[in-house]
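My current task is to audit a protein record that another person submitted. I need someone to confirm that the token line plausibly describes how this chain folds. Take the sequence as given and treat only the tokens as open to question. This is what I was given:
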Amino acid sequence: MGARAGSRERRTCGRRGHLTYRPTEAEYADRLRAQTALGEAWRCLRCGDWALGAPPAAGPAEHAPVPARGKALRQLALLRVLAVERLVRAVVLILAAYGVNQFSSAQTSLRRSFNNLLPSARPLANRLGFDLDHSLLVREATKALNASQRTLTLVAVALLLYGLLEGVEGVGLWLARRWAEYLTVVATAAFVPLEIYELYDHPTVTKGVTFAINVAIVVYLLLAKRLFGLRGGQRAYAEELRSESLLEVQAAAARADLRHQAGREVGMSDAGGGPERR
């Protein structure tokens, strides 16, 4: 593990505290425990540093917690970025739904004011060389002011539901829940056909960048998180996480020592038996 990854894990432990665990298997426990002048110390499963005091939990090594380390910790950082983006989007959508609802309540008075203001503004606009009658802004405003109450209600409800969906995604991604990763992939991919149509019908740089980002998010989650059975699915992903665990590294080292010791004993036995075979 590189120095950068180690520092990332130490920063995580600095915020959350060290994660220690006492395996019931003596060969594993001995590799995670040390006696110091200040008392017993245990190696943190996340950052690998030593922490004074007894571990808060104990049990078989296979039941030890598997904290995010190395690659998994980098993936968690990316998930947090996605989570913040989803939460910001949720706030914007919910505020937009509230705005549409308020607009619907005041639509009649706003339409009256707009119709009174437009003729007064037309001479000034003509002097400035601005054609109000063919303005996209005026056309869209007129369309919105004349929209039916039912249409505005449906728009507000759709914005609210979409905002709540984005909020659920954001919270789930922040907590690194696997269901949230599935939900993000499905929800994002569902809008890809619409984005393709919009990009084809009215191509802009913003639409192109947004489309590329959404496709990248879907592909990343599918492959990196092994969703929908890809690259071995959830079982392979769990094994990948456990392979990053410090306890797993210590267990592998212990097994290697046992194999080495057994090999030495066999070698000594063969060497001792040589003369007798002669």
Remarks:
- The chain has three domains: 11-58, 76-175, 177-232.
- Residues 71-105 form the longest helix (35 residues).
